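Re: beginner question about structure tokens

> Can someone show what the tokenized structure looks like for a real chain? I only ever see the sequence side.

Sure, here's an example I had lying around. Input first:
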Amino acid sequence: WEDGQLVKPEERETQHNYLAVLAADTSPSVRACFLRMVADWMSSLHDRWDHESRLLPYLLNGLCDEVSDIRKEAHECMERLGAVHEDEKENNDRDKQELRDFREYGHRSPAELNSAERWAAREQEPPFTQRPRLGARMVVRNNFKRLVPTLVRELNCWQSKTRRMSGQLLYYLTLYTEHWITCEAHVMLEAYIKSAQSSILMEREGDPEGAELLKQAMLCSEALGMFIDPALWVPLLLPTVSGAAGTDVEARSGCIAVLSALCKGCSRSWLSQHADTIVEALEAGPSDSPLVCSLLAQAAGSVAAACSPLSPQLQQSLSGMLLSLQVKAWTAGARILPPPKVGGVEENFAGLVAMGRDWKGVQTACWEALHSTASKGGCAASLISVQAESTLLGCDGSLAWLEVVLRQADLSRVPPTAVKTSVSLLETCVATAKTPGLAAEALGLASLVLSDTDVAFHAGAILPSLLCAALQCAVRGAEGALERDAREVEVDGGVKEEVEGFVVVECDSVDGGGSWKDGPAEALEAAHAALECALVILTDGSDTLVTHSNAAALLGSAVKASLALRSTHVRQLACAVAQYGASRLQGVPGGVLFGCVAPALADTQEGVREAALAALMPVLEGAGCDTSRLELEGLKGMLSTMIADGEGGALGKEVMGRVEGMLESL
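And the corresponding structure tokens:
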């Protein structure tokens, strides 16, 4: 019905939005002229207030232009429009009081103070080198409610281009409207969560548009967090963040991502009042999804960055949560702790989603958030203080917890009591390990920790029992590995054949944990790690080991069993353990030790012969009267052969002198 008569649809004249055509023109000069024209209309038309809501989106759209000069032109147009608006308010008897009241009293409100503070702390990106002037903010604020419903609806449109443009406009609307956006914040939050959820799904399915749309949703959420009191959005988001019943992975992922962006934009004075509640929600909802765990770590890092400096209680809560996520990733097989990337994951949400495809990405996200948490707390990553929780996790859980804690802690700043606790837990893990793999892992970590001199000093009282556990593991590991070495090996083509010229040495069995013969490869690894750990303990200089009889009794069995293995490195380690054990421990069965080390002088590997020669001097001193003339003469013959072949050097001659002296005394 037009002009008083019915008109058929096909007879109607096609209408075109020429302003939209000009705004999207391919020529930058045309778009720049169009912006100046729109700004002139909004400043000079007599009925400009009636058209303000229709023309303003075109002007704001210029802030999203791909050409920097046009973005700058749009910003200048907004500033000129704001100046005109302020002048009109000043000269209008009805409206001038509103402007004066705001200038005199409005800047004192908590929301306005927060807005000014966030603009001052914000990293300004062109064309926003400073906060927009008051008149420009008032123009956008007056038209905001009319624009939001349409933009929110189009934010989740099926067309990526429409979604991207809607997100850009909402971002700049938020920057201009500031805290006046509160009345529409719940609608915008819901739209941002849905947008993040669908963008994450697109990115995980390989759609290249997903990463860009996710970045846009996070920018909008961060801008919203700058100006909105957390008391508004915390109750809305936390039930989904904590994984309430019926929450699927996709919905939870989008909600956590938006929460992280909100925290990143929020001021410390506002967010610190809700930080404990947020951390509790992050801790409350464990998930088996690597993506959710990565986003939880991201959110924890954002809370730490926004609440800097952290209180000790908040730092401990965040650290404990991140370490728990790392333990989950560790037990899932991601056992490499990567160095933090330049820039951090909190700058790249799309990269975070990509990392969340597996548990390695979770380790990376937790690693970076953990170091951010430690630095924001004003101290090094001395996170060992929270590891007491590992005592409730059993051997496997304790070991995973200790791995992620000790490998990231600044051991030089860890309190002595925490050192003793961690070494004691490691000793328990070693002694109760049911598989050689767990034992090797615990022993390797113990060697790493005890290589620090201060740590070894503070843990001196626990070292004897740890040494006993290590020697016991060496015997059990050697027993398991000997089964394979003595029976058969695989050659090319998978054919197995008997090993020639290899004799199994009967070693003394030890109690504690059963046989490791079912996994000879892991058993060999455990024996290797046990000998390394024992060597670290024996060379630390502590006096607590001198009179420990249990360690002295186990030393001979460990060396005897290890020297029978085919691994050259293990045999070298066994000789080194014999060398330092004979000189550091009292009550070592000298005859047993001598009977193991002396035959090693005839080893086929030169490195083993040299290690055995170095061990002979302290072994001979400890053997004393336990050595018979026949054994000494046999040793003298081997030494003579070595010296005649040009091996041994000065040490060989010294040992030869010692043997000849012992023969004369018999």
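Each token stands for a local structural state, so reading them left to right follows the chain. The two ends are 130 Å apart (CA to CA).
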